[in-house]
């Protein structure tokens, strides 16, 4: 009998230790709801960055040095824009040569560029190698390098097979990057994707004769390091514009006008507070090169009467504060603490084709706060 009592008591303890069915159902429902909220939030954040899904990147990729240098020129360590006029447009894309040919022909896949993007400037970047040692004492000091757009001769029975895009003199014994403007060709490719037959580079002496290709050599995607690969750099504008702070409606200012300190129980004045967005925590560190995160900041605090100039009030907010203080009308709240200056940030990232993109996003950082 004693053994039976002990066993029965053990069963009761075990049953009590197990979570009830209702508890489990509520727990899993809460987890599912939390996951749904997270998914919806991530999807909305992707929309802010103009994407439907995060790019899928396989393995570790190295961004071109040109794009890294350009990012560091236009953005500070947190990605905030140094000067909005430094960048032409709001998007810069880099593409590697898809032909990977040893010859001086290049082709770039531009399928990731939206038709709605305005092409501002397109540049062909070629890395010029040193002449071979045996040809160092060649009598030529300069050469004429010309970039042509390859044409489809079957259209309109055109006898011209290529169209001159850019041509200039280059020192024979120099080494390093050479940049050629090819905007006209890229614009035509965006209108008709099938017309993208590539580019052809011709090197001639100043007298017009063909130059020995052992004397003038450009790095190819096949035989040279990625840091020297032929590259197309595209400056575009996607037409996205910032939202003027003056146009923000009441729905955008639904923040509480009064904020109380939990410790002291007194209101604190309107001020800018930290709000760090960590891309690694969100799960985006695999495709975002820079920054690793940024401080968006947020505005918090009260806007009590009388509003001092340190609270950067608008005239409307000042009048609203007076009406509230005098209780001349019912339902008139104190002004709200909101951003009155917004800054843009820059994102350097890999797209779906593993091309590196530098994009500027407006209104991403609260620069200062005021009572509005």
From TrEMBL:
Provide GO CC annotations from the record. Answer: extracellular space
Gene3D superfamilies found in the cross-reference section: 2.60.120.970, Cystine-knot cytokines
The organism's place on the tree of life at top rank: Eukaryota
Where does the record place a coiled coil? none
Asked whether the UniProt record includes Transit peptide among its keywords, one would answer no
Q: Which UniProt keywords apply?
A: Disulfide bond, Glycoprotein, Growth factor, Secreted, Signal
Query: In the UniProt record, does the keyword Secreted occur?
Result: yes
Give residue ranges for domain TGF-beta family profile.
253-372
Listed GO molecular functions?
A: cytokine activity; growth factor activity
Task: Quote the subcellular location field of this record.
Answer: Secreted
Comp. bias intervals (Polar residues): 244-255
Any GO BP: tube morphogenesis
Start and end residues of each stretch annotated as Disordered:
242-263
The residue range of the signal peptide is 1-17
Give the family from UniProt: Belongs to the TGF-beta family.
The name this protein goes by in its record: Anti-dorsalizing morphogenic protein
Instruction: Please tell me the species this chain comes from.
Output: Sparus aurata (Gilthead sea bream)
Gene name, Swiss-Prot/TrEMBL: admp
